Amino acid sequence: MNVNSGFQHQENCTNDRSFIKATGGGAYKFSELFKEKLGISLEKEDEMDCLVTGANFLLKAVNQEAFTYLNGSKEFVQIDHNDLYPYLLVNIGSGVSMIKVDGDGKFERVSGTSVGGGTFWGLGKLLTKSQSFDELLELSHRGDNRAIDTLVGDIYGGMDYLKIGLSSTTIASSFGKATSHNKELEDYKPEDISRSLLRMISNNIGQISYLNALRFGLKRIIFGGFFIRSHSYTMDTIAVAVHFWSKGEAKAMFLRHEGFLGALGAFMSYETHSLDDLVVNQVMPLPVNASLGTDTNYDPLEGDLNGTESIQCSVYRA
Ligand SMILES: Nc1ncnc2c1ncn2[C@@H]1O[C@H](COP(=O)(O)OP(=O)(O)OP(=O)(O)O)[C@@H](O)[C@H]1O
Ligand SMILES: CC(C)(CO)[C@@H](O)C(=O)NCCC(=O)O
User: Fold this and answer.
1) Which candidate among 17, 52, 93, 222 keeps its CA 20 to 30 Å from the CA of 231?
2) Which superfamily does CATH assign the domain made up of 117-202 to?
3) Is any ligand 1 atom within 6 A of the Cβ of residue 227?
4) Is 165 in the pocket of ligand 1 (CB under 6 A)?
């Protein structure tokens, strides 16, 4: 669930109620709990609406928000506001939603996949006994997926299969080596398992995203969601998948504030928080757990999220 801290207190003679905007499944699931324990009503905002509003806001208002990531280096992309749409927004949370965005409030959820962040965390926990997502992610930094995945070279005696465009190092079958008769789970290193899993899931999301972009003729694919967490290997795998399948035609883009699109969108849904009502260069407090430092040296690929600071926004008046 995404909740934001734009806490509002409404009073009139008959009704004294406090509410906060909330989106996602948790806005429904925890509604009663919030009311019972905190006396707060959750005002539900549609999840897809909020994701799109959050992404559009960031892309328009925050300088150096979007970047591409290829071969280990990132490049910020300055997007002309008049040339922002259409794009494919891929939100990788527990599951994955793919949304074709045509404008403010104009979008269609065109696809999705249940193989997402929850799959990485869930399968990874079972297979590696990791106690936290961060531990699992950290394992993947040190792993070598070649110990688990079958590569084209493993099948072709170390050779490339260039006739169909596959090098010997391309993964032919994720987790293929785990079929080995004389090996059990304990014989594989948790870090290698984590790495294979991350590659499998990121690759798959990159591929499905590209196919959907192709379906609608979209050149830009923007990835968000808490799964990415500015993790370089995740972004690299997704970017390579998009590059590989599109033969360089489509670009994967990432967002500095990728994990908070829904919360931002819910925040924006307060009538007084629309983009047009904000002034140029205003420092806008972000929702709880939804902000990054104002440090201009901040590196999203290295940084961690601590959710206590504000974000410097350049907001254009309509
Ligand atoms: N510290 C963390 N703890 C748990 N999961 C994390 C953490 N950091 C990143 N993740 C990843 O984020 C995913 C959840 O992302 P997010 O909160 O955006 O989605 P959600 O709202 O639960 O799912 P959905 O969008 O499908 O409703 C997890 O499945 C996991 O892959
Ligand atoms: C169900 C939601 C939208 C909840 O956020 C998300 O988890 C999701 O998009 N899952 C993928 C479902 C599917 O399209 O197969």
Assistant:
1) 52
2) ATPase, nucleotide binding domain (3.30.420.40)
3) yes
4) no
Atom of ligand 2 nearest to the CA of 94: 7
Atom of ligand 1 nearest to the CA of 134: 1
The mean pLDDT value for 170-182 works out to 96
CB 210 within 8 A of CB 200: no
> Does the beta carbon of 94 lie inside 6 Å of ligand 2?
yes
Alpha helix locations (H) across the chain? 26-29, 31-38, 47-61, 117-128, 133-142, 152-155, 190-216, 232-246, 261-268
Ligand 1 mean position to 83 CA, how many Å?
31
pLDDT tens-place string over residues 59-82: 999 989 999 997 788 899 999 989
Cβ of 32 less than 6 Å from ligand 1: no
pLDDT score, position 248:
87
ipTM tops 0.95: yes
**Would you say 298 and 76 are in contact if contact means Cβ atoms under 8 Å apart?**
no
118 pocket-lining for ligand 1 (C-beta < 6 Å): yes
Minimal CA–CA distance to 69: which of 258, 309, 211, 287?
258
Quick one: tokens of 234?
């995740």
Of residues 49, 32, 34, the one with CA closest to residue 3: 34
Domain ranges of the chain: 1-45, 117-202
CA dihedral 5, 316, 73, 55 (to 10 degrees): 50
Residue 81: burial class (beta carbons within 10 Å; 0-12, 13-18, 19+): exposed
Sign, CA torsion 180/183/184/189: negative
Ligand 1 geometric centre to CA of 47 (Å)? 14
Phi, psi of 209 (to 5 degrees): -60, -45
